[in-house]
Amino acid sequence: MKIPWVIGWALVCMGVLLTSRAEAGTQSLSPDFLTLSQAIDYALEHYPSVRESLAKHKEAQSGIDLAETNYFPRVEIGVQGTRSTFNNVSGMFFPNSFFQPISGPDLGRNSYSSSWGSAAGILLAWEPFDFGLRSAQVSTAQTMERHSQAFIRLTQLEVALAVGDAYIDVVMAQESRQALSANLDRRVVFGKTVAVLVRNQLRAGVDGSRAEAEVAVARTHLLEAEQIERSQMATLAQVLGKAGDHISIKDPVLVSFPQGSVPDKKDPSQHPLALVQKAAADIPKKREEALARTWAPKFNLQSSFFGRGSGWDSQGNRGGGGEGLLPDVPNWAVGLTATFSLLDFSSIRAQQQQEHYRNLAEMARYDRVIQELTAQQVKARSLMESTKRIAENTPIQLQAARLTESQAAAQFKAGLATVVDVA
Fold it and tell me: Superfamily assignment of 3-81+112-310+323-414 in CATH?
């Protein structure tokens, strides 16, 4: 049987494949058979979770573009037409949504007569400086983009591992089926030999019954192995994103004796999971830095050109026809506005504390991830080394088993051993 050293060689192959592959290439399923490398490449190109992470990365890149638009000036254009009365009153009130502004003198009289009015204008507003707020917002968006980029690599690694595990499980199932098929053939041949000896009254009838029982057990084990192989093939098709399809595999490398040594130790901080967690810790840190620049005056440089039209004169007399439909009275204005929300300090400070403690929590999680990855690497290297030694010892074990079987069969035929010794 080839199963013990298949595991070791497969682990070595997976280590080489996964550390060297960062991007997926365009692949299609082979009509004849699929190698391990082809299976991984195909899954990295087609598996839904990979496409999902790529789409989220594009979304994060759009977030950078959105943050950079804050540097652009704001331009608004508006046109308005009205039909209204001309009743005004002296005094002041706070602006609100249910009173409409009105210009003109208080005429001391009320009327429900109406006339046309119009307005059109353009407003340009730009924030010339912001004490680093917009730069901090762009930096936050860039950190989120790095997080999504690292998540793509992590998703690719997880998919590649899932495909590799499923592929190796199929190879092991196939090797197991072949071994059990050979075992059944051996049992059948031995059973026929025992049957001949029983018919010639050279062996007891119980030996024939025992040989038939061993054949039945071997056939059951083969049927179970075939069922396991079909199940593993279904799992492989699922992780390839081809659930329900028949997949044929063949990779000579995995069924040959392993060559090469265990891969060198890797820096756990460069593992995709560590990179994802580090970026996750940087996001609240960047948000905290942006919040620190929020409590500052805001300056707006504004420029406006507009026109108004009215069907009323300054005495409240209504013009005729379509007078007021065109904004024929122009005006322009340029100004600098400064505003400062004095009492926002407490809420901004509370938000900064939230982001600060989020950063501490994510950094603690990052330290835990590094510890886990380091421990996993030590265990994996130990497993690969021991499995490789087992693989090197397997041919000796196989040769001894064949010799033992041959000697037991010869002793049975000579009447020096029972059927139990051969079975």
Answer: Outer membrane efflux proteins (OEP) (1.20.1600.10)
